[in-house]
Design goal:
alpha/beta, Oxidized Rhodanese, domain 1, 2 domains, five-stranded parallel sheet, 12 strands, 15% strand
């Protein structure tokens, strides 16, 4: 009798609607890309408990009002940042970030689908999706997909909506994942060690110091220049190039999976894309992001800066 009851309990557990079987695989961490077709199939699941949380990460709320993916909740990427001690666009304290993510519905037990818009440079909205994905990953979320091709690819095949979803507050994991990020002291300690590569994800002109943006011009000494846009398609910056193409472009610069890779950029958005591509699309095992990036580094006058042209090799 006891054995029969045990079998019944196990059977009831196995048929519970966890939603995990409906979610496509995306690498060992559960973070990666998803096609518009697979995203739509998950969003259309007749069982609401198995549907993903869809996050529209665009900076313009009016863009969201004009049309978005069905069930998408708007989370402006820049609400996760603010001025700290005079330094702009710094990540908010953890307690505030937790509130913002929870209000957006981010939840430890759900699959999250992120997207943005703007398919041609100089538009860089794809960076909003990878930045939000980075913050979510740091707060312990393990199931994240970014729509490959973004809103432009989805809209080309499927209708949008203007309806708001009824999104309940989410519950974040208790354990964070802070080791995916780096502070400036760690950068200075690690960047010149054997087996480490420091990558600057900004455009080449900013790396060389030819720009109008930064307090100090140039780059962190010893850094390699690898613009994030080299890993996405020319006609749609939300669409990643093939894995083979990306690996070829990286290998030509000596950026290989056996290295410990430290990434930075201007404000960490470009760096978040390069880290996302390396870690979650190409499966490089050791990739971390310097969150302060150049906006912080340039404001630290005691730290050295290099500027000027470097060898350009574009495979």
């Amino acid at each position: 009798m006891k054995f029969a009851l045990l079998l019944a309990a196990v059977g009831a557990f196995l048929v519970q609607p966890t939603g995990l079987l409906a979610q496509p695989a995306a690498g060992p961490t559960g973070i990666g890309l998803i096609s518009p077709e697979d995203a739509k199939a998950l969003i259309d699941n007749p069982d609401p408990a198995k549907r993903p949380l869809v996050l529209d990460t665009r900076g313009g709320y009016k863009d969201y009002f004009r049309g978005h993916l069905p069930t998408a909740h708007h989370i402006n990427f820049d609400t996760l940042r603010g001025t700290d001690k005079g330094v702009p666009v710094a990540y908010l304290p953890d307690d505030l970030t937790r509130i913002l993510l929870s209000r957006a519905g981010v939840d430890k037990d759900r699959l999250h689908i992120l997207y943005a818009e703007g398919d041609k440079l100089p538009n860089d909205e794809i960076l909003s999706s990878t930045m939000v994905a980075y913050v979510m990953e740091k707060f312990g979320i393990k199931n994240i997909r970014i729509v490959d091709g973004g809103l432009p690819a989805y809209r080309a095949k499927f209708p949008l909506t203007q309806a708001y979803p009824n999104t309940p507050a989410g519950s974040l994991p208790k354990t964070m994942n802070p080791e995916i990020g780096l502070d400036v002291d760690s950068i200075m300690k690690l960047k010149d060690k054997p087996g480490y590569i420091l990558l600057d994800a900004r455009p080449q002109n900013e790396f060389e110091g030819d720009d109008i943006y930064w307090l100090r011009k140039g780059h962190i000494p010893g850094a390699k220049s690898f613009h994030w846009a080299r890993l996405v398609m020319d006609d749609n910056t939300h669409k990643f190039r093939s894995v083979d193409d990306c690996k070829k472009r990286l290998a030509a610069e000596g950026i290989t999976p056996d290295k410990n890779i430290l990434v930075y950029c201007g404000t960490s958005r470009e760096g978040s894309l390069l880290r996302f591509a390396l870690r979650h699309v190409l499966d490089y095992p050791h990739v971390r992001l310097y969150e302060g990036s150049w906006r912080e580094y340039a404001n630290l006058p005691d730290l050295p800066v290099e500027k000027g042209p470097v060898r350009k090799s574009q495979p």
